[in-house]
């Protein structure tokens, strides 16, 4: 449009100069000029039309681009939200992740156990062990296996030593107790009822016993190992090798 105005301006100045600068003119020459001018006008009109067409096309392109940009901004927002959620997931500490120190023959490695992840097929499994020795624990005391090997389904609480079934199912439980100059009856309690029992005794030596129980457990019921009601004494041995442990998993 600016170009067009400029053209008109130049044209007017030319015309004015031609008019005042040549007072005596014959009509033939004026006619010629008018003819020339009307040709120019026609040309200008077609140029304007062309510009208007281009303008329309450009407006279309701009509106399409701004639509696309809006789309991109929306997608970016969605992606950012997803990344944010993933980051929260990664940073989340469910209180059940345990730093483990594991000793092989020559080396000690430290790794973080991730727990609380439920397997896609609904398998529940935990395995935990005691990191320390206990002595003269007494009767009817819950054994806390405070370090986790695995805790799929996040059912086992290593602070209190209690497994709470995330779902109803048929479960296998097994526990191993190592004593030193000790005598311990340990029992598996499921929802307050005894579902297994062993006795481990050793005079001035160390010895281990294991027991296994298969139990149908209803979601929400608690399962733990405790000392029996009478005559328990001496030491229970464990440590990072996991000599005393407690495990459970679903079989249906
Ligand atoms: C332990 O170290 C010895 C000697 O350095 C080496 O021969 C052996 O292969 C190592 N064992 C392991 C399990 O790394
Ligand atoms: C359940 O899923 C886990 C992990 O995907 C797999 O390791 C395990 O073998 C599966 N268990 C069964 C019974 O399919
Ligand atoms: C448990 O006691 C035994 C014997 O005193 C000892 O060798 C072992 O280091 C102790 N374990 C822990 C984890 O303190």
Automatic annotation (TrEMBL):
InterPro entries: C1q_dom, Cerebellin_Synaptic_Org, Tumour_necrosis_fac-like_dom. Residues 119-252 form the C1q domain. GO terms for cellular component: extracellular space. The keyword Coiled coil applies. Gene3D superfamilies: 2.60.120.40. Its main location: secreted. The keyword Coiled coil applies. Keywords: Coiled coil, Secreted, Signal. Residues 1-20 form the signal peptide. It is found in: Secreted. Residues 34-82 form a coiled coil. Pfam families: C1q. This is C1q domain-containing protein. It comes from Magallana gigas (Pacific oyster).
